[in-house]
Automatic annotation (TrEMBL):
Pfam families according to UniProt: DUF5819
Record has Signal as a keyword: yes
Domain of life where this protein originates: Bacteria
Source organism per UniProt: Streptomyces katsurahamanus
Annotated signal peptide: 1-24
Matching InterPro entries: DUF5819
Protein known as: Uncharacterized protein
Keywords: Signal
Length: 189
């Protein structure tokens, strides 16, 4: 009971320091506050004024496993977004978290890394690990096997403007980004 109360008070204090205007205390303890808040308790206005996506993203993952003879076995590409969409469509009460976990992880990754895949800050390293853990967990659950390395490919397709003429051609990808192979621990944990 006391541990629960202490954790609740610490959580409220850390989130308050995160959203409040900068102060001496929040500046001094910024690394600890950010470690607690990101990525699970991030505060922003998108909940109240969401900005709709102008693109569709197909996030694909594949895994690699080192065999006993030292050779690598690489899995086929697995569409993580299609799995999310299917889970939402076939759920009577779809979860907001399930709908946005992967999308927000990718957005946070691109915000922290920019156009390249070099992590220059602690937050960028954390977002890379977060994204790779999500992908590794899903691929390991699907393949029921060990995942040593994970690679993501993100294909971004534009969404046609309302009333635009739709031809027989599929939209041309705006971006086809292939991320490097990332080492993961057992099942992305």
């Amino acid at each position: 009971m006391i541990l629960c109360l202490a954790t609740t008070l610490a959580h409220v204090a850390l989130v308050f320091l995160h959203v409040a205007p900068a102060s001496t205390v929040s500046k001094r303890f910024s690394p600890q506050i950010n470690a607690w808040v990101y990525p699970f308790f991030e505060q922003n206005w998108r909940l109240f004024a969401p900005e709709p996506d102008s693109v569709n993203r197909q996030i694909l993952a594949r895994a690699a496993h080192t065999r006993s003879d030292g050779s690598m076995k690489v899995s086929a590409w697995f569409d993580l977004v299609a799995e999310d969409n299917s889970a939402v469509e076939h759920s009577v009460f779809p979860s907001h978290t399930a709908q946005n976990l992967l999308r927000r992880a990718w957005t946070s990754y691109t915000d922290s890394h920019g156009g390249d895949d070099n992590a220059r800050t602690e937050r960028a390293v954390m977002m890379q690990k977060y994204l790779s853990n999500i992908a590794a967990d899903r691929v390991a659950a699907r393949n029921a096997g060990t995942v040593d390395f994970i690679q993501l490919r993100v294909v971004t397709l534009p969404i046609a403007a309302p009333g635009a003429a739709v031809g027989n051609r599929p939209p041309t990808p705006v971006e086809n980004r292939l991320l490097p192979w990332w080492k993961v621990t057992t099942h992305g944990k």
